[in-house]
Amino acid sequence: MLEVVIVGGGIHGTYLLGRILEETDLGRDEVAIIDPHDGLLEAFRRNGRACEMTELRSTFVHHVGTEPFGLEDFAEARGREDELLPTPGYPRRPSLSLFLDYADYVVDGNDLEAHHRRATVEAIREHDGGRPGRGEGVVLETTDGPIRARHCVLAIGHGGRYRRPDWAAGVEGVTHVWADFDPGRRAGGTVVVGGGITAGQLATSLSERERVTLLTRHPVAEATTEADPRWINWDHIEARLHRHPPGSRARQAVIEDARNDATIPSYVHERLRERADDGRLELRRGEVTSARSVDGDVRLLLEGGGCLRADRAVLATGFAPVFEHPFVEGVADALDLERGYGGMPVLEDETLAWRRTDGDRSRLFVTGALAAGTVGALAGNIAGARRSADRIVPALEGARPIRVPSPP
Ligand SMILES: Cc1cc2nc3c(=O)[nH]c(=O)nc-3n(C[C@H](O)[C@H](O)[C@H](O)COP(=O)(O)OP(=O)(O)OC[C@H]3O[C@@H](n4cnc5c(N)ncnc54)[C@H](O)[C@@H]3O)c2cc1C
Fold first, then answer.
1. Sequence-ordered list of residues with C-beta below 8 angstroms from that of 261, at least 6 positions apart, any chain
2. With 60 as the cut, is the pLDDT of residue 266 above it?
3. Which domain holds residue 173?
4. pTM score, two decimals?
5. 290 shares a domain with 330
6. Ligand 1 pocket test: which of 97, 204, 382, 388 has the largest number of ligand atoms within 8 Å of its C-beta?
7. I want to staple 107 with a disulfide (CB 3.0 to 4.6 A). Which of 99, 112, 193, 247 is the partner?
């Protein structure tokens, strides 16, 4: 039986693996990370490629390495400081290529791929070790067979499900940027639907080679970060979030209020305005009521009577709610785990262990967007990976600490 299995080899899973190996005596045969992609972090790379992202929104201390200033040191040692980009009133941000090169350096330098098993976890159930009753661990049913583990950490991000408006269902030529959009395919004209950074980034990039309309429901809103940077600190998280009961509607309201969803930073807004002034991009406000495909064109009918016509429409409308993910629901049912408002996992705030319906701690821990009820507004972001690991790693029973983590 493995000591720890991490489900998901994205930013959170990869970062957590590094912290476990560094801070405990657990070794290669005891910790595994399961992800269907060929390599760790592949989902993040693919999403970055799809929207032609060139730089991070978050600062240079947020990355997959365990040393906060590791990326900055890496850039300086290679003469790549110019890839730490200035942001007015905010610390510098890495270019995507610097971020990914440093991630490769961390993965290779710590031999993290040796822990990676290529598979999808389809279900998780109690492992009772042949003695019915309270389990000794869990069994993960994967596409590559069952795996037994004493502890399991869900690091599935948003779980690969995307938000698609009803009007888009079954319409040929309408794709979602993270799912079925082909960034390599050229088109004469594209409508990008969405008001957040992904929509802004994609519309700007596509407008270099084709006619683009960016369709937003609301006026484009600016924000430097996804939430106030104070959400990086446990003191702030505890004061603002943990004063409400775990899993409560009040916690959900605090998170929603703190998130700057559907906003774009000023540098992306600036580029959009430049393109619009050049006539290469049209900024349009409106709500789509229906869509259809006619003679290879996509036609979007807007509330109030307008119509947009293009070769294709690309949705940059985000992810489907992970709390309601069928995999998550199945795991909660099989392990008798408590869920709160909107399906939110009820976690122990001190450990991020998912609480059982009888109030006891389960052997399942959670990081990423699924842990927002405890980690707060930046839980699903890169910064949230460090915060989650702060509490998960010391809580892994049987994993003896060998190192005190460096300060955030
Ligand atoms: C273009 C772009 C730019 C971004 N810029 C920033 C930024 O500047 N700063 C920031 O903080 N955040 C940014 N983000 C958000 C960032 O992607 C997330 O913070 C981060 O990817 C979350 O990491 P994660 O590990 O939780 O999820 P993911 O990176 O999505 O990884 C989850 C992994 O879990 C795997 N998985 C899911 N279900 C299963 C299963 N059942 N079995 C096995 N494996 C499974 C998936 O295959 C995937 O590999 C950006 C996102 C995008 C797309």
1. 196, 226, 318
2. yes
3. 166-225+260-315
4. 0.95
5. no
6. 382
7. 112
